[in-house]
Amino acid sequence: MYETIENLLANNDIFTLTTVLGYWDGLVMTVQLVFLSLILGLILAIPLAIMRASDNVLISRSVWIFTYVFRGTPLLIQLYIIYYGVTYIEGIQDSMFWPVVREAFYPCLLAFVLNTAAYTTEIFRGAIVATPRGEIEAAKAYGMSNGKAMRRIILPSALRRALPAYSNEVIFMLHASSIASVVTIIDLTGAARDVYAKYYAPFEAFTFAALIYLSVTFLLVFGFKHWEKRWHRHLRPLS
After folding, report:
1. Are 195 and 18 within 8 A, CB to CB?
2. Would you say 97 and 89 are in contact if contact means Cβ atoms under 8 Å apart?
3. Residue 171 backbone dihedrals phi, psi, to 5 degrees
4. 34-52 residue pLDDT tens
5. Phi, psi dihedrals of residue 197, rounded to the nearest 5°
6. Please, are residues 112 and 177 in contact by the beta-carbon 8 Å criterion?
7. Is 160 exposed, middle or buried (0-12, 13-18, 19+ CB in 10 A)?
8. What pLDDT score does 166 carry?
9. Is residue 181 packed enough to be buried (19+ CB in 10 Å), middle (13-18) or exposed (0-12)?
10. Is the dihedral of CA 129, 110, 182, 192 positive or negative?
11. What is the structure's pLDDT at 4?
């Protein structure tokens, strides 16, 4: 396989086998970072969304402060604060956590997780409060407790309604992940920057990266459209 790619790129001064493999490694890093951020952010966002929709003002306002801070400030600033701020924590360099936090990947992952969790919390919160009153009353009529109604009726219904908005958040995180390169992570954008620095060809380097981002975005949009049709097939009119 590598020989075939090398033969195709034999007459190209910029996109050699080494360059293409660099882009591939960058793509793997981008996918890994985005995937972990979304999974961890989703796990964090579901209980936070339930708390955000709570009638308890103290609980709801506490989550609102979290979402307001992370939705109201740029992700790049959040990344800088977490990445550089960790080193100023008293005793962190002598602790067992230093081998982990000194690597750029983990502070970057933390920033992405908190950011996407804030946005996803508000997406799910909106879907939860939009649950039709009839569904809740039907759950109560069956004798379900509030917790059981949340698990069996409200959350599944809310997740279906939230899917279109959440798909936009997934695509946003893919595009936003390009800032990871500012803290020395060689993601897809970082690979393009290396090609630019080596060959002084910014147009070719970043255009190729843009085409890869575009291709991944197309796959995500296609996947979510298929997912939406599958989840919402009960809403289709009978022929």
Report:
1. no
2. no
3. -65, -40
4. 999 999 999 999 999 999 9
5. -65, -30
6. yes
7. middle
8. 93
9. buried
10. negative
11. 64
**Using the 8-state DSSP alphabet, how is residue 181 labeled?**
G
What mean pLDDT comes out for the span 53-65?
Answer: 92
Q: Residue 90: which region, alpha, beta or left (left: phi > 0; alpha: psi -120 to 50)? A: beta
Determine phi and psi for 14, rounding to 5 degrees.
Answer: -100, -55
């390009």: which residue's tokens? 178
Q: What is the pLDDT of residue 233?
A: 61
Measured between alpha carbons, how far is 123 from 161 in angstroms, rounded to an integer?
10
The pTM (predicted TM-score) of the whole model is: 0.87
- Give pLDDT tens digits for 104-125: 898 899 999 999 999 999 999 9
* Tokens representing residue 171 in the block: 């695509």
End-to-end CA distance of the chain: 49
Q: How far is CA 177 from CA 8, 26, 195, 226, in A?
A: 30, 11, 19, 24
The secondary structure of 144-169 as a DSSP string is: --HHHHIIIIIHHHHHHHHHHHHHHH
